[in-house]
Amino acid sequence: MTALNFGDDMAITDPSGPATGPLTTADGKPLVKALARSQARLRRKAFFLVLPLLAFVLITFVVPIGQMLQRSFYNDGFSANMPLTSAWFAQTERGTVPDDAAWQALALDLQASAEARNIGTVGTRVNYDMPGTRSLFTSTGRKVRRGIDPPYQQTLLEIDDEWADPQLWSTMREASKPYTANFYLASVDRTRDAEGNIEQVDERQRVYVMLFWRTFWLSGLITALTFVLGFPIAHLLATLPMRKSNLLMILVLLPFWTSLLVRTTSWMVLLQQQGVINDLLVWIGIIPDGQRWQMIYNQTGTIIAMTHILLPFMILPLYSVMRTINPSYVRAARSLGATSWTAFRRIYFPQTLPGLGAGAMLVFILAVGYYITPALVGGSSGQLISNMIAQHMTGTLNWSIAAALAALLLGAVLALYWLYDRLVGVDNLKLG
Amino acid sequence: MAVPSYATPLERIWHYAYVAICVAIFFFLIAPIIVIIPLSFNAEPYFTFTEKMRSFDPEGYSLRWYDSLLTFGMQAPDAVRDTSWWADAWANAKWVKAAKNSIIIGVCSTIVATSLGTLAALGLSRPEMPFRRAIMAILISPMIVPLIITATGMFFFYSNPCELLTIFGFSPQCGRLAGTYVGVILAHATLGIPFVIITVTATLVGFDQSLNRAAASLGANPRVTFFRVTMPLILPGVVSGALFAFVTSFDEVVAVLFIAGPDQQTIPRQMWNGIREQISPAILAVATLLVIFSIALLTTVELLRRRSERIRGLSPQ
Amino acid sequence: MKTTLIMSTALAGIAFGAAAQEVNVVSWGGAYETSQVEAYNKPFTEETGIKVTMIAADNPATPLRAQVEARNVSGDVFDVEVSDAIRLCDEGALVEIDPAMLPAAPDGTPAIDDFVEGALLDCAVANIVWGTVISYNTTKFEDNPPTSAVDFFDTETFPGKRGLPKNPKRTLYLALIADGVAAADVYDVLDTDEGVQRAFDKLDTIKNDVVWWEAGAQPVQLLADGEVSMTTAYNGRIFDAMVGENQPFEVIWDGQYMDLDMFVIPVDAPNPEEAMEYLKFATDTQRLADQAQYISYGPARKSSAELVGMYKDGTTEMAPHMPTAPANLESAVLDNPEFWADHSAQLTERFNSWLANS
Prior knowledge:
The structure holds 3 protein chains of 3 kinds. By secondary structure, chain A is an all-alpha fold. Chain A folds into 3 domains: 3-73, no CATH class; 83-205, no CATH class; 208-428, MetI-like fold (Orthogonal Bundle), CATH 1.10.3720.10. Helices cover 67% and strands 1% of the residues of chain A. Chain A has helices at 5-9, 31-70, 83-91, 100-115, 119-129, 134-144, 152-159, 166-175, 182-187, 208-239, 242-257, 260-271, 276-284, 299-322, 327-335, 340-368, 372-377, 385-395, 399-423; strands at residues 190-192, 198-200. A two-stranded antiparallel ribbon of chain A has the order 1-2. The longest helix of chain A is centred in the N-terminal third of the chain and has 40 residues, at 31-70. Chain A is flat, with a radius of gyration of 31 Å. Chain B has a domain at 94-279: MetI-like fold (Orthogonal Bundle), CATH 1.10.3720.10. Chain B has 13 helices and no strands. Chain C has 2 domains: 20-129 and 260-329, Periplasmic binding protein-like II (D-Maltodextrin-Binding Protein, domain 2, 3-Layer(aba) Sandwich), CATH 3.40.190.10; 132-257 and 338-356, Periplasmic binding protein-like II (D-Maltodextrin-Binding Protein, domain 2, 3-Layer(aba) Sandwich), CATH 3.40.190. In chain C, 42% of the residues lie in helices and 18% in strands. Chain C has 16 helices and 10 strands. Chain C has helices at residues 2-16, 30-48, 61-69, 82-90, 111-114, 149-152, 169-178, 186-190, 193-204, 218-224, 235-244, 272-282, 285-291, 302-305, 326-329, 337-356; strands at 22-27, 51-56, 77-81, 124-137, 162-165, 210-213, 230-234, 249-264, 298-299, 333-334.
């Protein structure tokens, strides 16, 4: 296996450069070689310790995701079930007007596919690229299941004249190739017209680009909020004596250790119209009973709950950096005449930047992929792109578009992760 | 942190404002978790403090929601509470079943994640480890990749694990992992691994490799060295990594939603159902129990961390 | 080492010991699930020894399709709507069911004549008739209660949030009714692009006041919590809350949407024989009648109708609460399964985009 080669690839070069005479070990081998060999052995040993886990993660995690993403560019729903029509498309140029052979292929394929009860799959595939056509396939299928007679063109057009639509034929041509980039086009609200040119989809159906922007904008906002709330806390914890700060730290760690669903439920209890906060506001007299605030089942709900849930991920890295900041720098600045604000801005704050960067990136990365909390408290305006992926996975069952959206989201997250590794280093990740 | 004596009046005001802000933020952090505890004793099926609760009337409080955790799903919940009633609850109550599942899946996935993860962490902290950074990044990635993506990938893979082999030209028939305990356990182990790696490698940062060499030079074989020298030193890290892995599994719902079958409904899955359907205060009763559970875990981890720092001589300044 | 051994043995016992006969039924959760557990599952287990596991879904047709397409079927019997049953049958996802296998009525009438019209399909057997109705919280409208679908869309006169299901099937018809379309014409209008646009335009007027629900138990909860003042909901759930839990709810039957619920068995079901047993048992005359004493859904067999009497409390007459009661049928929209079998995918897509663009 390739594993064995890793050691040799990395063989060290002789550090001492050309020497007068090669040093040798007791049994007469050159020392450099013996050293290299023992190094290689150590490397192999280290690698073998990691190998089981690496293999495990590759098989249970990396490969499944890769397999899933394959669906974003591969779909044989049409080509596998409509072989004659697919063959006709393969032989002709784009834009060819369907001839008798084409109509015959289509009719026979439809009949066979309806009989085999997979016409739904075919219709679904075409429907992905041209919404509204699924029913054309299933309803025609129901009528031709028992058999279809020539003239095929006339028969099909009598069942539904939509079969003559050039856009439909163009879409079927696209669908006849199992490999396609159309799902990626769809996931950025683009489609192909009858000539195969890329264009924006109908305004009423544009949704994904908006959702991506919303996801990034809300994640950014939540990151900013966690910073605003997390910074004073981290600062307080870092400057208090250890004994006191350890005690207060529990208040940060308890939410961190508490179940996500528990925290989400709490917010539902607090934020709903007859919930604790609204009750309190009415009781104090800030708002009349009839005008309770809508703080849940919308974006507000998503923002509040996610800020609360992700706050510890900001506080912990900030805290661990602030702990190491020497307080005498600020004192020195003060003694040199800086106001407390200047000392904070010019001396203290710049030193917290590594912690801030680490915390902000972690919170942002986690927020971009959030699913559970928006699903429960987000209503419709607080849904993120993950919820759309889930919707396509379990609701509309358009797995190809789900995979394409997932690929785009994953790309963004991995880019951020790579950046995080560059700037912070994954081995500097700390928990509690 | 007292106000320094040279502070201006404005700075004093700012200082007190700052303390007030911190108190408010701590309140924001902790209040949502605390508020559900009294509500779980509500005698009424609402999520607000009723008149009777506010006046501390004992009638406003009851244990009915805790009781419902036992009776929900039972064959004969209204029977006399003798041994057969308890047997019924143990066998059929949905929350009891969910708790059993959560524990089975949590323990097994923790064992897998911790054993493989500790081994890998040992390799990763050796200075000779090749491609350390890249491999580390791969092993941590289950924590970073959005769960919905992980779960959908696993859904397809576990539905038909042999499909993978078709790439190599084989087309064997084999069962599925989705809807089995093994499937959920493997999925949760994968999700728990990053936590084990992070905590154990952090423990190993202060680990003095010469201790191993010393043991070897005194005649201990690698196995003895590992169990008698290395293990006791990294144990606190391993245990807290294991706890993290356990909590990850215990709290996980997305992968369960996608790959678990009807027999593997866990507590979070049951909560998810409850929250979306009939959010009765029974959910709050479960939540309260889970909060108590997390307090216990938190305490354990804290104690372990201190012990680890003491052993390694890294005790705080 | 010893403890590990004991533990793993114990685990194996718990985890893999359950090889007894079982059947997994996927249904809609909440009060409806309770009625099925009481009326079907408990007597079924008692009689056959087959264990029944209930699994709740927002709409069981979705997990069914996902499971069949991923070749990972874990449910044996699914409770789905007619349009989904037709569609899934077309796609080859369901086992065909021969009506001759179903038990005859007590008087000997064969099943095929005993079931109401449309209750027996190639791959499905109906169990209940149910309605989607508007319901409101009486404490919110004490002097001037709403009476119609038009009032549902009138947030000026009848303030408060509205609950609506997150799907086109049970929202578009209501918008059209409220916009003045007669119940009988709803599907003629919906079949045109202008009609669909008209429905969405009407929905736009209250879009900002809607709390969307997905599971059948949610609207009841929203209404009870005061989160919404008016909502549509499955009539049985409202009945359960009104009569079973004394909630201050009232039902508006104007513009009810009447539908059948079908039992289907997916291909590759893990326990096909037990599934068929269950299906036969649960749709016999007595079981369908029993079901109606737990929730106000009408039995799909004519012979069950006369056996329906009182609610389980012994004092509430079920008949006036049934979606099939003549008074409740006056302006009912009857489900058009063929329309939805053909248009559901397209309209769902349109609906989701409309919803997300808020």
